[in-house]
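Dear colleague,

Thank you for sharing your sequence with our group. We've completed the structure prediction you requested, and as agreed, I am returning the results in plain text so they can be pasted directly into your records. Please verify that the sequence below matches your submission; if there's any discrepancy, let me know and we will rerun it promptly.
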Amino acid sequence: MLLRSARVAFFATSAAFATLCAPASAAQASDPFVAGQRWRSTASAQDAWLPQSLSFAARGELLWSAQAGANPRLELFDSAPFSSQLAPRAAHARPGVAGVFAVAAGRDARALFALSQYPGPTPATRWSELSRYDLFAADPNQPVWARTFAAPTNGLARVQASRTADELLATLYDQSSQSLRLEWVRGADGVELAAHIYSTPSLRQVAASRDLARVALSVGAQVRVVARSGALELSHALATPTNALALSGDGQRLAFGDGGALRVFARSASGWSAAREFSAGGNFVATRVALSDDGATLAIGWWDAQQTQRVRFELWNVAEAAPRYARELSGSGGVLQNFPESVVLSPDGRRAAFGAWGTQDTQPEALLVDAQSGQELFALDLGGSVRTLALDEGGTRLAVGFKHTHANLVGATGEVRCFDTGERELQLLSVPHPGAPVQLAARRALAQRVYLLRGPLAAQPTPFGSAVGGLWIERLAVASQSRQADASGRANFTLAVPLGGWPENFALQAYFRGGGQAAFSRHVLVPVVR
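Please find the predicted structure tokens below.
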């Protein structure tokens, strides 16, 4: 009875909330509920570029991209559309970029960040700039703010955003002065919040907790962990320098390569101590590693330093004796080496993505793996070398940036592709624009009736009786429309977008009834309208 009365309250519709409901139609040309490629953006000989860095934004509905070449640019793409050649939502030219060109993003379209390096002031040095873009700014083509770092940075540079995007961490290394600068910056205006400078012979890798309160560094033949206060929490000597370094999102576990081993340290009240060690045997060395937010899931990319065409990817629950997933790739001929270029995990550890150079055979260069089952969701033969990967928070969307040729061969063109596992129960079928209709589809097996709910996004879900999941829209402001589902449990909808667009916290969720069960969609859609 509780569910029935609540249902009457929030499923009631009125003329004030009337929208256009599309009639049942034939299946879309491309099925959003089937795993596959959504779109691609491809460089050409006339417009040659290579993808440098990718980051999902706006709860996975947008992809933020840095692309280097004759005309360096930042581009913002919609994640959902099907397209053989997708045009960006926004593009920002960054002429003169040379060296590091990296992006980071928060959970909405107002928090888009880029770290760019430029040559000067001498032929042997570079300077760096950190900037923020806002899709909803009066002029979205111009940065909201830009911060120039006065010190030269002709080495590794990185930028990371906190989960809320309230803060950024810029890591800047200058080889000539052997100076490492860590600078925390306020996301709203670029103002410096804290900064620490260290002397070190090299910087190979950096990782930070999600709140940026703790930073791990691979410097020289050491791994260090420093706190935001500048306090040194750990300094551990390595057998050999490593690029394999990860810090869990909660800052409580550290993973790093050490010779032929991959070591995991845990933090306690008494400090950091060894917790687990992994090895792939033979001449394998760990070159890439990732940890989930809670540190319970570990993904490793191994490379055979003797048989350089061999790589091995593994996915572990740190507490278990055997890997959830393992795959070894060996070159089938030729002399091109393989190498694990990128390993990423979704924050909850549910999904892992692996990217490699490949050896120009039919074996995959990119893989998406489910941690629970150990199954490959995607095994992608791209024909070129992976340069960068991005995985959305839920692990349902994978972006791959790759070079059209092998990493060891001359080539100036590449592309970005976006893939979707088809698991989202509510999907956009077109890009929303003010004053235009937008198409959506919702599907759940055995559903007979589908409700499309809309209204302000709630801070927490509201449970309703025995319904699976909860309502993520403010209960007192929710409106709905419904359709009969087809045999697959799918219903299509069309919504009219107001001329002024939807508010930024406007959310859409699906509710399904049928098969003896009621359920809310796990995914809540917050459309980005500009």
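Summary note from our side: Residues 185 and 436 are 39 Å apart (CA to CA).

Kind regards,
the structure core
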